[in-house]
Specification:
The chain is of the alpha/beta class and about 400 residues long. The protein has 15 helices and 15 strands. The strands form four sheets. The chain has an eight-stranded mixed beta sheet with strand order 2-9-8-7-6-3-4-5, sandwiched between helices. It binds pyridoxal-5'-phosphate.
Length: about 400
């Protein structure tokens, strides 16, 4: 026997967030080197704690989580989510439209498997959080990337989306607020994407996991609210807004005309049933978390950590002549551009070189399906002073760097 052959379904799967540079960083840490890991959006690893509301709900109810629960999720948790999404403008939904899972990371492959047959296409942004391209590949489908235009506030290029629609296109994905760019799309843009889906009979998938992490009063438009007449799947979760990434708590909401979404809801239920149920412990905290908007908001205003870290990062980036960036409006990421195209031919190589020289781990832009080696993503989660120093260190490295 020559060994176990791997499935070709995994040939295209990639995760640069935990890729080559990350493995190298782990090896450095094992050898006693301190590495500042700016690769994952995992607030708890930077000293953020869960809100008291969540801790209290967890401790008070833990005994109720020992049995398998409903594969779609506990009814009271789903009701709290229905109430939340109705406030966001999704009017005609009930608990039958909510699917709670072990993070959006579990639900994205379920959504893709439900709608993509072999060779079907899912239009998704570039740059893009790689969960979605991986989910499309695993489902046997094909991610087709539309451009988000840096010169236009990183907004999706609608003409590019329209040009790339083919008879195999099944859905358009929006990530709003966006990872890695940190931008929030204006309501008019969301409406135009919905109009495109309406015109071409496409499902609209909207990953809105950062909708509670918007700063500066920038308005947010949930996609399902402007498209009650077409099928929409909205994804969201508590990992970031309530600092409980490790709990694995996310959900999908199916909205739109019921006759048009019946098969999709059947497929999602079938897949949800295969894994019996989502983690019941995390579902117990959903009602308390959705009632606690204050703890999230406190992090997003002057004096709050997310806000102060973003400001410190911008102050540091403003001093670097070698990069340009668009100030993030939400979440805790920035996607700067390296201005000298001759410096970097291979951005994965750049990430490893930076790691070795400065002990800072970041994610190369190509890890977000960005086609040129001229961007990188920084996670803005360390305390402001540390983050500020780290960004100056990145600038210092870039000044003298050539490939
Ligand atoms: C855009 C986006 N969607 C989904 C996820 C995954 O979230 P979860 O923790 O719910 O699996 C992330 C995590 O960083 C993300 O950035």
């Amino acid at each position: 026997m020559t060994g176990v052959e791997s499935s070709d379904k995994l040939r295209r799967i990639h995760s640069d967030i935990r890729g080559e540079a990350y493995q190298r960083a782990l090896a450095m840490e094992r050898a006693g080197v301190e590495v500042l890991k700016l690769n994952t959006g995992n607030p708890a690893s930077f000293g953020f704690g869960m809100p008291d509301s969540v801790r209290r709900a967890l401790l008070a109810n833990a005994d109720r989580a020992v049995a398998y629960c409903d594969p779609q999720g506990m009814p009271e948790a789903r009701q709290a989510l229905v109430d939340y999404h109705r406030r966001q403008g999704l009017q005609d939904i009930d608990i039958g439209d909510i699917f709670i899972g072990n993070g959006v990371s579990e639900l994205a492959p379920m959504v893709c498997s439900s709608v993509l047959s072999a060779g079907d296409e899912l239009l998704m942004p570039a740059p893009s959080y790689s969960l979605w391209s991986n989910a499309a590949y695993l489902a046997g489908g094909k991610p087709v990337f539309y451009v988000c235009d840096e010169a236009a506030g990183w907004y999706p290029d609608l003409d590019d989306i329209a040009r790339k629609i083919t008879p195999r296109t099944k859905a358009v994905l929006l990530i709003n607020p966006n990872n890695p760019t940190g931008q929030v799309y204006a309501p008019a843009l969301v409406e135009r994407v919905a109009a495109l889906c309406r015109r071409h009979g496409l499902l609209l998938i909207s990953d809105e996991i950062y909708d509670r992490l918007i700063m500066d009063g920038v308005p947010f438009q949930s996609a399902g609210a402007v498209a009650p007449d077409i099928p929409v799947v909205t994804l969201n979760g508590l990992s970031k807004s309530h600092i409980i990434c490790g709990f694995r708590c996310g959900w999908a909401v199916v909205s739109g005309p019921r006759a048009q979404t019946a098969q999709l809801r059947d497929c999602l239920l079938k897949l949800a049933s295969l894994r019996l149920c989502g983690n019941a412990l995390t579902q117990l905290v959903i009602p308390a978390a959705m009632a606690d908007e204050a703890s999230t908001r406190a992090m997003l205003v002057p004096g709050g950590r997310f806000w102060e870290q973003r400001e410190a990062a911008c102050r540091a980036m403003d001093q670097l002549g070698c990069i340009r960036y668009l100030k993030p409006q939400a979440a805790f990421y920035v996607f700067p551009r390296i201005m000298d195209p001759d410096k970097i031919k291979d951005d994965r190589h750049f990430a490893v070189d930076l790691l070795e020289a400065k002990h800072i781990l970041l994610v190369p832009g190509s890890g977000f399906d960005w086609p040129a080696p001229d961007h990188f993503r920084l996670v803005l989660l360390p305390e402001p002073k540390r983050l500020y120093r780290a960004i100056l260190d990145v600038g210092d490295f870039l000044e003298g760097y050539r490939q």
